[in-house]
């Protein structure tokens, strides 16, 4: 199962709205088929592994990181395909809470005489499938907020200088993280300040959706960002007060402009994420800036927090990594549980998970 989980991660960021599943088929102690969900969500991992295994799948065991599908979509049900291939035992990491499956895949296999074992490495699988689960439970994608800051939590000097706070190893790691998410998201302030391209570089041809939240679409029309519209899909989420001429200009350039409502006079980040969820996105990688980071944290919409800390200090006159949260007490602060920490080059990466994530599993099981 550990091997199947590793394979499944290869699809992260490229298979939405489908989950990134891995499958390994073993016959007489030998791996005869391996597969993972392919770009665009099809073919499914089981189909890829069965095609590789061919006749060797007969009397074999299949290890799958999610309950095989039981519904007819663009392809026949994977549960039926496994049974038809002669697989006699299927081991799954977790059930699929999608209403179209929800135990039906396991039931179809058992009805066909296939032995089914559930819940192997379930905790790891739930973490891998967290974006898929979040979309099912809350109608929005999982949000990973990445911050790269000085030791004292600053992302720029008082004059605005910010390149580079972290080293080249950390920056390459960020591109690998972008690769495992469906979209890269920033606020309009980051675009105006940094003129970023927001693409995945140094990892082969791997375009990812880019999402910018800008209430009035007051984004630079010249520079690297404007010139990169054709490099990867670009969605601009704006408010109802965005001028029509700006919407027309970006649409003509090739971007997709999407109106979202305001809340307390600013873009409603919850509504923005729900729009992304309705579009099928499961995993979003937010890279700031401070205003957007604060909005997401205030709304309790950050699921994972990734912090790169560099060994330099910029002082209180530097730009903070997170904007005002308006907190009166420590009890009101959003809190996270440490998942992992390690050094990357000369910097430190610490990964945190939201403390109430267990509620997600409870909601899906009800």
From TrEMBL:
Gene3D superfamilies noted in UniProt: Cytidine Deaminase, domain 2 (3.40.140.10), Dihydrofolate Reductase, subunit A (3.40.430.10)
Signal peptide: none
Binding-site list for Zn(2+): 44, 69, 78
Active-site residues, Swiss-Prot/TrEMBL: 46 (proton donor)
EC number: 3.5.4.26, 1.1.1.193
Amino-acid positions noted as binding substrate in the UniProt annotation, renumbered to this chain: 162, 178, 198, 201, 287
PROSITE patterns for the chain: CYT_DCMP_DEAMINASES_1, CYT_DCMP_DEAMINASES_2
Alphabetical GO biological process terms: riboflavin biosynthetic process
Binding note for cofactor: Binds 1 zinc ion.
The keyword Zinc is assigned to this record: yes
Catalyzed chemical reaction(s): 5-amino-6-(5-phospho-D-ribitylamino)uracil + NADP(+) = 5-amino-6-(5-phospho-D-ribosylamino)uracil + NADPH + H(+); 2,5-diamino-6-hydroxy-4-(5-phosphoribosylamino)-pyrimidine + H2O + H(+) = 5-amino-6-(5-phospho-D-ribosylamino)uracil + NH4(+)
Needed cofactors: Zn(2+)
SUPFAM superfamilies: Cytidine deaminase-like (SSF53927), Dihydrofolate reductase-like (SSF53597)
UniProt keyword annotations, A-Z: Hydrolase, Metal-binding, Multifunctional enzyme, NADP, Oxidoreductase, Riboflavin biosynthesis, Zinc
Entry binding sites for NADP(+): 148, 164, 190, 194, 289-295
Example of a GO MF term: diaminohydroxyphosphoribosylaminopyrimidine deaminase activity
Involved pathway(s): Cofactor biosynthesis; riboflavin biosynthesis; 5-amino-6-(D-ribitylamino)uracil from GTP: step 2/4; Cofactor biosynthesis; riboflavin biosynthesis; 5-amino-6-(D-ribitylamino)uracil from GTP: step 3/4
Family: In the C-terminal section; belongs to the HTP reductase family.
Function per UniProt: Converts 2,5-diamino-6-(ribosylamino)-4(3h)-pyrimidinone 5'-phosphate into 5-amino-6-(ribosylamino)-2,4(1h,3h)-pyrimidinedione 5'-phosphate.
Name of this chain's protein: Riboflavin biosynthesis protein RibD
Organism name: Oceaniovalibus guishaninsula JLT2003
């Amino acid at each position: 199962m550990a091997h199947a989980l590793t394979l499944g991660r290869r699809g992260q960021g490229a298979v939405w709205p489908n989950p990134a599943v891995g499958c390994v088929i073993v016959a007489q102690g030998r791996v005869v088929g391996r597969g993972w969900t392919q770009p665009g969500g099809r073919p499914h991992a089981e189909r890829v592994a069965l095609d590789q295994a061919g006749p060797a799948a007969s009397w074999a065991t299949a290890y799958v990181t999610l309950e095989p599908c039981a519904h007819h979509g663009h392809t026949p049900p994977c549960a039926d395909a496994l049974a038809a291939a002669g697989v006699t035992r299927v081991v799954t990491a977790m059930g699929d809470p999608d209403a179209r499956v929800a135990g039906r895949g396991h039931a179809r296999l058992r009805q066909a005489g296939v032995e089914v074992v559930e819940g192997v490495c379930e905790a790891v699988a739930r973490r891998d499938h967290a974006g898929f689960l979040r979309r099912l439970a809350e109608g929005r994608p999982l949000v990973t907020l990445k911050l790269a800051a000085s030791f004292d939590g600053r992302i720029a000097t008082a004059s605005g200088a910010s390149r580079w706070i972290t080293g080249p190893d950390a920056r390459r790691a960020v591109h690998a993280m972008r690769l495992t998410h469906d979209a890269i998201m920033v606020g309009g302030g980051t675009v105006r300040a940094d003129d970023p391209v927001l693409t995945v570089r140094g990892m082969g041809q791997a375009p990812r959706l880019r999402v910018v939240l800008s209430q009035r679409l007051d984004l630079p029309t010249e520079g690297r960002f404007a010139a990169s519209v054709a490099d990867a899909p670009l969605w601009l989420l704006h408010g109802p007060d965005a001028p029509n001429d700006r919407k027309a200009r970006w649409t003509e350039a090739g971007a997709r402009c999407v109106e979202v409502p305001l809340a307390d006079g600013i873009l409603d980040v919850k509504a923005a994420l729900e729009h992304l969820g309705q579009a099928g996105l499961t995993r979003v990688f937010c890279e700031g800036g401070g205003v957007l980071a604060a909005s997401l944290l205030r709304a309790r919409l950050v699921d994972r927090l990734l912090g790169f800390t560099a060994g330099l200090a910029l002082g209180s006159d530097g730009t903070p990594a997170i904007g005002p949260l308006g907190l009166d007490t420590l009890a009101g602060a959003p809190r996270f549980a440490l998942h992992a920490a390690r050094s990357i080059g000369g910097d430190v990466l610490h990964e945190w998970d939201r403390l109430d994530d267990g509620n997600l599993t409870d909601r899906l099981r009800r």
